[in-house]
Design brief:
CATH topology: Rossmann fold
Strand content: 15-25%
Bound molecules: adenosine-5'-diphosphate
CATH superfamily: P-loop containing nucleotide triphosphate hydrolases
Helix content: 40-55%
Number of strands: 9
Radius of gyration: 16 Å
Structural class: alpha/beta
CATH class: Alpha Beta
Length: 189
């Protein structure tokens, strides 16, 4: 099974995915490639494969990516084909953490083999507060992300499931429930 988890920046996909990976040992995170710089504490090959813009372009040219997107000006993000092979060879389920457009592209590619989940923030104002609270980007970058979020929220209906991330514990429990349905269904056959 393939799980595609998307939200606008600050919507909570990283937080919810970290929780899901703890809940379900057979879920495995697909590590994306990016040309953005690592944040403090982020590790190459764990959070992302951090590459230069030139290296990213080489991956595109060599057809190494399932999909890619220039999510923010100069910051490319893409899904390496090799990640799916690596994870499925272990018999694990794939988790993609992707931006909203990337999630729609992946769902089109994988169709019924994938479940796409949109993490919905309670409001744009709350999204801004969380990004400011996370403090991983300067304010002008945060404003650009918030400005982009309004359009991104309108794509939610293209996802299989929409999960509102208001109360975090509730959102985690609901995320567990969604994943459990699919993993159980598969083992029951
Ligand atoms: P994303 O990965 O989608 O960019 P994060 O998971 O980093 O988003 O969440 C953005 C910020 O909001 C983080 O600082 C996170 O701790 C916080 N956060 C996430 N979900 C909630 C929630 N339900 N209530 C309050 N804060 C939250």
């Amino acid at each position: 099974m393939i799980f595609i988890i998307s939200s606008p920046s600050g919507g909570g996909k990283g937080t919810i995915i970290a929780h899901l990976l703890q809940s379900f040992p057979t879920l495995e995170f697909s590590v994306s490639a990016t040309s953005r710089k690592p944040r403090e504490g982020e590790q190459d090959g764990v959070n992302y494969y951090f590459v230069s813009p030139e290296e990213f372009k080489r991956k595109i040219a060599n057809d190494e990516l399932i999909e890619y997107e220039e999510v923010y000006a100069g910051s490319y993000y893409g899904t390496p084909k090799s990640e799916i092979d690596r994870i499925q060879r272990k018999g694990h389920h794939v988790v993609f953490e992707v931006d909203v457009k990337g999630g729609i592209k992946l769902k089109k590619i994988f169709g019924e083999k994938a479940l796409s989940i949109f993490i919905m923030p309670p409001s744009i104002e709350e999204l801004r507060r969380r990004l400011i609270g996370r403090a991983t980007e300067p304010l002008d970058v945060i404003e650009k992300r918030v400005a982009k979020a309004a359009l991104e929220l309108s794509y939610a209906e293209q996802y299989d499931r929409v999960l509102v991330n208001d109360d975090l514990n509730l959102a985690k429990a609901q995320a567990d429930e969604i994943i459990r349905q699919y993993i159980d269904r598969e083992t029951i056959g």
